Amino acid sequence: MKKTIITAALLMSLISFAQKDELKALKKIYDKDAPSVKDIASFKENLTKAEPLATDEGDKLYVAYYKAYAPLLDASLPENQKNPTAFFSKFSPDAIYSIAKSGDDVVQYEKKTGKKLLSDDILEQDPQMSTMLLNYAVALGEQKKEKDAAKVLYALYLMDKTKTDYLYYAASYSVNGQDFDKAMEYYNELKKINYTGEKTIYTAKSKINDKQEPFNTKAERDQAVKIGTHTLPKEEKEPSKKGEIYKNIALILVQQGKEKEAFEAVAEARRENPDDSGIMLTQADLYLKQKDIENYKKIVGEILAKDPNNADLIYNLGVVAMQGNQDAAAEEYFRKAIAIKPDYANAYINLTAVRMKPDKDIVEKMNKLGTSAADTKKYDQYKAQREKMFRDLLPDLEKAHELMPENETITQNLISVYGFLEMTDKRNALKASLKK
């Protein structure tokens, strides 16, 4: 009996030594700046041997990380480095997430044990790699692959947890991709780290493409203006996204049929941030969605009493009313915002959108008419109704275009209105300007 126990202990010791040898071999190849094809084959061979032998927590985490990292070794070969298409053919959003998640697991484990083996290397970000992954995420989003884009963005956040904007955008893409469980996971993490997203955006107009371009810092922007590549420097404060985060949490809960929890989530947010107007707007929006007009008006009153001349607040009230199909109230708020801030481009854009909403219904009615005398009379009435509506909103639409000429929707709407009102010269001039 005693001999059997000793033999078993010796066997476990030999397995452990073998496993440690394989882990050492993996680490040695992992540390190489330019592993060869032979090195990569050896890495995969040692990984295959080590995987079934890993028994304790640390070894399992290291093997999992090396396994996730293996495709990156293939991608690091010179022929793949020079070709982004070949580089990313070695990956998928799931593979990128696996590298980031297993890397984060190792970092957290080494923090817990106090023994560093891979942490410093995992946390040392390659700017070129980060840029490539970010561009990849954007491309996935443009292809309407929102869930995959969210995975890559969350992976970028795991690789560098100071880049909290990536977590915020991962949540946003998850919402767009209808992956509400993941969105809730990310939003809750944003709440936990007390993310606000507040920042100042520094831009200047490029002399090359005549467009406002963003810069990472004020110093970079000022330098571009100084050397003459850019003009018209601007600074824009990006407001807190806390209200939006709580709003989306509440809306997801409503979507999931958890309305009570939605109200509780917003109530909790207000307790923690009683003066956050964004959260108050979320609460007002919930009341509006529930058709609880009295409580909606009460919250709106609190918002306006707090800061009656805040154009952004009033504009946001207009957005909430617009989303709740309270078009008359939305128009009133947008006009108030413009009265306070005459160059408020987004207020003009939404004001014209609200004022043009009836057009769809009028056109549908016109299209259903026949050719009888009675229908012809109705057609003329609808046409006159459209003409009056377009003439009334034309000054606002022109102002919106003046303030934001790059907005394609506004430009196309203005071209259409000019055409309907037979303002041929203005229509042709605007169309010609698009071709320059």
Automatic annotation (TrEMBL):
This is Tetratricopeptide repeat protein. It comes from Flavobacterium silvaticum. TPR repeats lie at residues 243-276, 311-344. The keyword Signal applies. Keywords: Signal, TPR repeat. InterPro entries: TPR-like_helical_dom_sf, TPR_rpt. GO terms for molecular function: mannosyltransferase activity. One of its GO terms (biological process) is protein O-linked glycosylation via mannose. Residues 1-18 form the signal peptide. It holds the Pfam family TPR_16. PANTHER family: PROTEIN O-MANNOSYL-TRANSFERASE TMTC3 (PTHR44395:SF1), PTHR44395. PROSITE patterns: TPR (PS50005).
